[in-house]
Amino acid sequence: xxxxxxxxxxxxxxxxxxxxxxVLDFAxxxxxxxxxxxxxVKPADWNENKQRVxxxxxxxxxxxxxxxxxxxxxxxxxxxxxxxxxxDGIPDPIILKQSLDSLIDKNHNKASDPNKPTxxxxxxxxxxxxxxxxxxxxxxxxxxxxxxxxxxxxxxxEYSKSRVDFDTIDLDFFYSYVNYLKxxxxxxxxxxxxxxxxxxxxxxxxxxxxxxxxxxxxxKKFSYNEEYTEHVYLTEDELAxxxxxxxxxxxxxxxxxxFIFGAWVGLRFSDFSNIKPENIIQIDGDYFIKTITQKTxxxxxxxCNPVIMEIFEKYADRPNMLPKTIxxxxxxxxxxxxxxxxxxxxxxxxSARPKDILADLVSSHTARRSFATNxxxxxxxxxDLMKITGHRTERSFLKYIRVSKLDTAKRLSEHIKANWSxxxxxx
Length: 427
Prior knowledge:
47% of the residues lie in helices and 11% in strands. By secondary structure, it is mainly alpha-helical. It has three domains: 7-108, no CATH class; 119-218; 236-412, Intergrase catalytic core (hpI Integrase, Chain A, Orthogonal Bundle). Strand 2 and strand 3 form a beta hairpin. The longest helix is centred in the last third of the chain and has 22 residues, at 405-426. The chain is elongated, with a radius of gyration of 29 Å. The mean pLDDT is 87.
């Protein structure tokens, strides 16, 4: 005797936002209906045996209904539609789907139509890299940022029990969402600012695609400013000391050499740690690094100074003439150890962490900051530096370099001394 057809609810593979779509799966008489209805959950919140969410108070995405109640109603409707249609023969899956669609439309007034674009389906298109700017692919970092914001929005929706979609993005949402990120999630100011900026990107695209005519995200109050964050850079003297350091540990030595390399080419870690042989070119007897940056897709050409050439010679047996690449996280751990060996014990380099020694403030990105800041302090033209660092605007470049108030005071002091000396000589 054949088994009675049974409705099952399964999860699709987890998306980059940490959520999985729920699918109704109904197999019968050698036929099958797989039905998605616009609801998703975190896999950790799903009871696979009961095929329901663990927390019975979890609501649908729009916050209007208990999600488990919806699943119960879908199961009942599917079985009932199958039983009634069976009187006229084995029903086609599309017949059952129409009954389920009617239930969804009735309960949600078509707001949860799985075929209707939502801010989450649009966000997924951003995450997948489908939506580009002038045809250029977005960096992995940018795609990860999109996924993080989608995840935050879903978690906020679940926390607030309120629907988040194109028509609900207004000042009231802004105030509530910012409060959630700051006081419930305890996210940093600049992370909150990034979230708001990306939501505005999502909404701007939604308007362009004519998914919504809601322009409330354009309100002058719908913005959140980043705060200036202090980061260290290493002076040329400190870089020289680091490079001259004798290190017995091979792994730490290679991390030191890769950091020094980065500090003299000005690239991001993702770029300078993945230099390939074809990126090293020779022009008129001089060597250059020619590459396209991963984040901004900018072509940069960087001259190889004597230190870089020494590193290339040291690792000449490697395909790219550089130390073996490791993860950014491990690199950040090891470079701190290297800086401690170099006795970078100065404290108070940044006011935000006045008790931290310099060694603990150094990371892979310090190399790039050191390059930009050192050459800037030497008076190298900003526009020329930007061609090497890949910054597109002077504003973004100037926000990037780390010139302290003391650095500025010293430069002014040297300027005063030089001018005063010239005046004395002219008397």
